[in-house]
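dude i think i finally got it to work??
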Amino acid sequence: MQISVFEHQVIRIGMEWSGQIFSVRHYQALVRYQSHLSHHWYQILPDGVRFSHYVGVLQVGDLTIEILPKTESAAPEVWRRVLLEMLSMAGVLKVETAGPTGLGIRPNFLLDYYFDHFLETVNSLLNGGLVRKYRSLQQNEKAWKGQLDFQKQIQHNTIHQERFFVRRNHYDYSHPANQILSQALRILPRLTDNLALKNKVIGLQTAFPVLPTWPFSENGFREILDDKAFQRYRPALELAYLIIKNFQPDIRTGRHHVLAILFDMNQLFEIFIYEQLKKINHPEVEVLRQIQRPFWLNRKIRPDIFIKLKTEQLILDTKWKVLSDGKPSMDDLKQIFIYNQYFAANKGILVYPGIGKARISEPIPYRPLPNGMEPGDCEIRLVEVLKNNKINLNFGKEILKI
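look at this
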């Protein structure tokens, strides 16, 4: 049971898609899910939900809701491909042109791509050999191995003198990185009915060591990612992270578990623009992303993209929203103005997705400032995301007019 909607769309209880109905139980599961995680992926309405600028997949029991990006009129399959290509450029998914072997191109195939990519990364780790580490054990043994803990020996083995309570280091696979991957493998079969994926999971579970569940925490996970011993684990861990963190079994009903694999379209658009600019590969163009400078107390400001040209410096701030009247908001104008000042940029460019043919405004200077400050110029760029119903891969040069 699957439906496709676009960002900011509203679905209400009783709405039907090709015979599939968004029911009260689906609605109640989403209400509980939001109250548990306190996220901003969608807004609860009295009789439905309104989606925001997050795109991807929400799975609610037997219902899969695919949320697609949209700035102009195009069929869902067009925006589905656009989303996959953006996720591929962002390094979230590895997307091949023909699709993964054995996966049908279904309306909710984003989940299939995500799960398949996770399984491939785990398989690659297994083929290269999982990392083993030393861990400290304190337990009763039938043989004296390690250092005897006299206090625990007296406490536990006064009667059973044939046993030894010892402290020793054990070298094995039982550490948080492997436990996270193992936990995601245990969850995944509950989330898909794709037979090819289920068979892959069974094969990997058989090859994976049996490990205890790791008590998941944000800080602990970040520490694992920063551990140099697990650098080659990073892609698999980041994929497993979304599966574990955003999976919530519905304990009350036992029927409608919820899984969210959602991405912020503002971030995807920013990365997409950055990747296009990097491809220019011009000797007089240097493109940097999210460099930061001190602003106030411990706070810093960080524009999306900073560009060094031969004769000038540019700031780009990307916004995934449609300008209905072609005019940016005051907040957007103030933000790019501050960036101009702190980064000594000659010009700030606000980049929005365009509808139809891309339009470029002439640079317009800010009004003169007191004390001889140079305010810089502000320019608006409406980039053409789609060309002939395909993602536009050439607007990097269009933005810089190279």
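Residues 97-105 have pLDDT under 50 and may be disordered.
im so relieved honestly
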